[in-house]
Write a structure and sequence with these properties.
This protein is an alpha/beta fold. It is built from nine helices and five strands.
Length: 230
Protein backbone atom coordinates (compact mmCIF):
# COMPACT_ATOMS: atom_id res chain seq x y z
CA UNK A 1 0.00 0.00 0.00
CA UNK A 2 2.81 2.41 0.89
CA UNK A 3 4.38 1.80 -2.50
CA UNK A 4 1.10 2.66 -4.22
CA UNK A 5 0.70 5.86 -2.20
CA UNK A 6 4.30 6.85 -2.95
CA UNK A 7 3.77 6.21 -6.67
CA UNK A 8 0.58 8.27 -6.68
CA UNK A 9 2.33 11.13 -4.93
CA UNK A 10 5.10 10.94 -7.50
CA UNK A 11 2.62 11.13 -10.35
CA UNK A 12 0.88 14.09 -8.70
CA UNK A 13 4.22 15.85 -8.20
CA UNK A 14 5.10 15.32 -11.85
CA UNK A 15 1.73 16.74 -12.91
CA UNK A 16 2.28 19.79 -10.71
CA UNK A 17 5.80 20.24 -12.05
CA UNK A 18 4.56 20.03 -15.65
CA UNK A 19 1.79 22.53 -14.92
CA UNK A 20 4.25 24.94 -13.30
CA UNK A 21 6.63 24.53 -16.24
CA UNK A 22 3.82 25.23 -18.71
CA UNK A 23 2.76 28.33 -16.80
CA UNK A 24 6.36 29.54 -16.72
CA UNK A 25 6.63 29.20 -20.50
CA UNK A 26 3.38 31.09 -21.07
CA UNK A 27 4.47 33.80 -18.64
CA UNK A 28 7.79 34.15 -20.44
CA UNK A 29 6.06 34.46 -23.82
CA UNK A 30 3.63 37.07 -22.51
CA UNK A 31 6.49 39.06 -21.01
CA UNK A 32 8.23 39.24 -24.39
CA UNK A 33 5.09 40.42 -26.20
CA UNK A 34 4.28 42.97 -23.48
CA UNK A 35 7.82 44.36 -23.53
CA UNK A 36 7.75 44.66 -27.31
CA UNK A 37 4.37 46.41 -27.04
CA UNK A 38 5.87 48.85 -24.57
CA UNK A 39 8.72 49.35 -27.01
CA UNK A 40 6.30 50.35 -29.76
CA UNK A 41 4.60 52.89 -27.50
CA UNK A 42 8.01 54.26 -26.54
CA UNK A 43 8.94 54.61 -30.21
CA UNK A 44 5.61 56.30 -31.01
CA UNK A 45 6.29 58.92 -28.34
CA UNK A 46 9.60 59.76 -30.06
CA UNK A 47 8.33 60.30 -33.62
CA UNK A 48 9.69 63.74 -34.43
CA UNK A 49 10.70 66.26 -37.07
CA UNK A 50 12.59 63.62 -39.04
CA UNK A 51 9.29 61.89 -39.75
CA UNK A 52 8.02 65.14 -41.27
CA UNK A 53 11.19 65.47 -43.33
CA UNK A 54 10.73 61.96 -44.69
CA UNK A 55 7.07 62.54 -45.52
CA UNK A 56 7.93 65.69 -47.43
CA UNK A 57 10.77 63.98 -49.31
CA UNK A 58 8.59 61.10 -50.45
CA UNK A 59 5.66 63.33 -51.38
CA UNK A 60 7.79 65.70 -53.41
CA UNK A 61 10.20 63.28 -55.08
CA UNK A 62 9.91 63.01 -58.83
CA UNK A 63 11.89 59.78 -58.87
CA UNK A 64 11.62 56.33 -57.35
CA UNK A 65 11.71 55.26 -53.73
CA UNK A 66 14.06 52.43 -52.79
CA UNK A 67 14.23 50.69 -49.41
CA UNK A 68 17.21 48.61 -48.33
CA UNK A 69 18.34 46.60 -45.31
CA UNK A 70 20.47 43.58 -44.45
CA UNK A 71 19.76 40.59 -42.22
CA UNK A 72 16.52 41.00 -40.28
CA UNK A 73 16.31 44.59 -41.48
CA UNK A 74 16.16 43.19 -45.00
CA UNK A 75 12.81 41.57 -44.22
CA UNK A 76 11.55 44.83 -42.73
CA UNK A 77 12.79 46.83 -45.73
CA UNK A 78 11.05 44.47 -48.14
CA UNK A 79 7.83 44.74 -46.10
CA UNK A 80 8.08 48.54 -45.98
CA UNK A 81 8.56 48.86 -49.74
CA UNK A 82 5.59 46.57 -50.32
CA UNK A 83 3.27 48.47 -47.99
CA UNK A 84 4.32 51.85 -49.35
CA UNK A 85 3.47 50.62 -52.84
CA UNK A 86 0.14 49.12 -51.79
CA UNK A 87 -0.89 52.39 -50.16
CA UNK A 88 0.03 54.65 -53.06
CA UNK A 89 3.75 55.45 -52.78
CA UNK A 90 5.48 53.37 -55.47
CA UNK A 91 8.54 51.80 -53.86
CA UNK A 92 10.99 49.00 -54.47
CA UNK A 93 13.15 46.86 -52.23
CA UNK A 94 16.81 46.60 -53.18
CA UNK A 95 19.08 44.13 -51.44
CA UNK A 96 22.40 45.82 -50.59
CA UNK A 97 24.49 42.81 -51.65
CA UNK A 98 22.74 42.63 -55.01
CA UNK A 99 23.01 46.40 -55.38
CA UNK A 100 26.79 46.12 -55.07
CA UNK A 101 26.72 43.60 -57.92
CA UNK A 102 24.99 45.92 -60.35
CA UNK A 103 21.40 46.44 -59.21
CA UNK A 104 22.25 49.95 -58.03
CA UNK A 105 22.15 50.84 -61.71
CA UNK A 106 18.45 51.45 -61.11
CA UNK A 107 19.25 54.35 -58.76
CA UNK A 108 19.24 57.71 -60.51
CA UNK A 109 19.07 61.41 -59.88
CA UNK A 110 15.72 62.27 -58.30
CA UNK A 111 15.38 58.99 -56.39
CA UNK A 112 15.22 58.53 -52.61
CA UNK A 113 16.98 55.68 -50.80
CA UNK A 114 15.76 54.60 -47.37
CA UNK A 115 18.27 52.46 -45.45
CA UNK A 116 17.36 50.47 -42.34
CA UNK A 117 20.13 49.40 -39.98
CA UNK A 118 19.85 49.35 -36.19
CA UNK A 119 23.59 49.67 -35.61
CA UNK A 120 24.37 51.59 -38.79
CA UNK A 121 27.52 49.53 -39.29
CA UNK A 122 26.51 47.12 -42.06
CA UNK A 123 29.32 47.43 -44.58
CA UNK A 124 27.23 46.59 -47.62
CA UNK A 125 24.54 49.13 -46.70
CA UNK A 126 27.05 51.88 -45.99
CA UNK A 127 28.84 51.24 -49.27
CA UNK A 128 25.54 51.30 -51.14
CA UNK A 129 24.63 54.63 -49.51
CA UNK A 130 27.93 56.19 -50.58
CA UNK A 131 27.55 54.87 -54.14
CA UNK A 132 23.92 56.00 -54.31
CA UNK A 133 24.92 59.54 -53.43
CA UNK A 134 27.65 59.41 -56.05
CA UNK A 135 24.95 58.43 -58.54
CA UNK A 136 23.03 61.58 -57.62
CA UNK A 137 20.01 60.33 -55.65
CA UNK A 138 18.09 63.22 -54.14
CA UNK A 139 18.35 61.99 -50.57
CA UNK A 140 19.24 59.11 -48.29
CA UNK A 141 17.04 58.49 -45.26
CA UNK A 142 18.67 56.41 -42.51
CA UNK A 143 16.55 54.52 -40.00
CA UNK A 144 18.92 53.62 -37.19
CA UNK A 145 19.41 53.58 -33.43
CA UNK A 146 22.97 54.89 -33.69
CA UNK A 147 23.04 58.51 -34.76
CA UNK A 148 26.83 58.56 -34.65
CA UNK A 149 27.21 55.62 -37.03
CA UNK A 150 28.72 55.72 -40.50
CA UNK A 151 25.24 55.26 -41.95
CA UNK A 152 23.94 58.29 -40.10
CA UNK A 153 26.96 60.39 -41.10
CA UNK A 154 26.31 59.69 -44.79
CA UNK A 155 22.54 60.21 -44.68
CA UNK A 156 20.60 63.38 -45.45
CA UNK A 157 17.85 62.56 -42.95
CA UNK A 158 18.61 60.52 -39.83
CA UNK A 159 15.59 58.92 -38.18
CA UNK A 160 16.62 57.78 -34.72
CA UNK A 161 14.56 54.74 -33.77
CA UNK A 162 14.39 54.69 -29.98
CA UNK A 163 14.51 51.19 -28.49
CA UNK A 164 13.85 50.16 -24.91
CA UNK A 165 16.67 48.25 -23.19
CA UNK A 166 16.22 44.51 -23.61
CA UNK A 167 13.79 44.78 -26.51
CA UNK A 168 16.34 42.72 -28.43
CA UNK A 169 17.59 39.64 -26.53
CA UNK A 170 21.15 40.29 -25.43
CA UNK A 171 20.98 43.51 -27.46
CA UNK A 172 22.15 41.21 -30.26
CA UNK A 173 19.16 39.40 -31.80
CA UNK A 174 17.05 41.89 -33.76
CA UNK A 175 13.51 41.22 -32.55
CA UNK A 176 11.70 44.13 -30.92
CA UNK A 177 13.83 46.70 -32.71
CA UNK A 178 12.65 45.41 -36.08
CA UNK A 179 9.03 45.78 -34.93
CA UNK A 180 9.80 49.41 -34.12
CA UNK A 181 11.19 49.96 -37.63
CA UNK A 182 8.20 48.19 -39.16
CA UNK A 183 5.70 50.26 -37.16
CA UNK A 184 7.49 53.48 -38.13
CA UNK A 185 7.16 52.40 -41.76
CA UNK A 186 3.47 51.61 -41.27
CA UNK A 187 2.93 55.12 -39.91
CA UNK A 188 4.77 56.56 -42.91
CA UNK A 189 2.74 54.57 -45.44
CA UNK A 190 -0.57 55.46 -43.77
CA UNK A 191 0.22 59.18 -43.50
CA UNK A 192 1.31 59.32 -47.14
CA UNK A 193 -1.85 57.50 -48.21
CA UNK A 194 -4.00 60.02 -46.35
CA UNK A 195 -2.01 62.95 -47.70
CA UNK A 196 -2.18 61.80 -51.32
CA UNK A 197 -5.84 60.82 -51.18
CA UNK A 198 -5.04 57.37 -52.52
CA UNK A 199 -8.38 55.57 -52.66
CA UNK A 200 -9.42 52.09 -51.57
CA UNK A 201 -10.53 51.52 -55.13
CA UNK A 202 -6.93 51.93 -56.27
CA UNK A 203 -5.70 49.71 -53.43
CA UNK A 204 -8.03 46.90 -54.46
CA UNK A 205 -7.22 47.36 -58.14
CA UNK A 206 -3.56 46.64 -57.41
CA UNK A 207 -4.48 43.82 -55.02
CA UNK A 208 -6.87 41.53 -56.98
CA UNK A 209 -5.72 38.30 -55.30
CA UNK A 210 -6.50 36.84 -51.90
CA UNK A 211 -9.28 37.82 -49.52
CA UNK A 212 -8.67 41.53 -50.20
CA UNK A 213 -9.33 41.00 -53.90
CA UNK A 214 -12.68 39.40 -53.09
CA UNK A 215 -13.95 42.39 -51.07
CA UNK A 216 -17.28 43.58 -52.43
CA UNK A 217 -17.63 46.74 -50.40
CA UNK A 218 -14.98 49.41 -50.23
CA UNK A 219 -13.94 50.65 -46.77
CA UNK A 220 -14.62 54.25 -45.88
CA UNK A 221 -11.90 56.48 -47.25
CA UNK A 222 -9.24 57.54 -44.77
CA UNK A 223 -9.51 61.04 -43.36
CA UNK A 224 -7.29 63.29 -45.49
CA UNK A 225 -4.20 65.06 -44.22
CA UNK A 226 -3.08 68.36 -45.71
CA UNK A 227 0.54 69.04 -46.68
CA UNK A 228 2.25 70.90 -43.85
CA UNK A 229 4.80 72.72 -46.05
CA UNK A 230 2.33 74.92 -47.98
Amino acid sequence: MNEIITAERGILRMAIDKNEASEAVIAAARAVVRHEGEGLIHAADHIDETFLQTVRLLRQTTGKVFVTGAGTSSAIARRMAHLLSVSGTPSMFVHPADALHGTMGALERGDVLMAISKGGASQEINELVVKAKERGVDAVVALTSQTGSDLAKNADVVVELKNLPGIDPGEAIAMGSTLVAAAWGDALATVLMRMSGYSWGKVLHSHPSGAVGKMNDLPDELEPLAPFWN
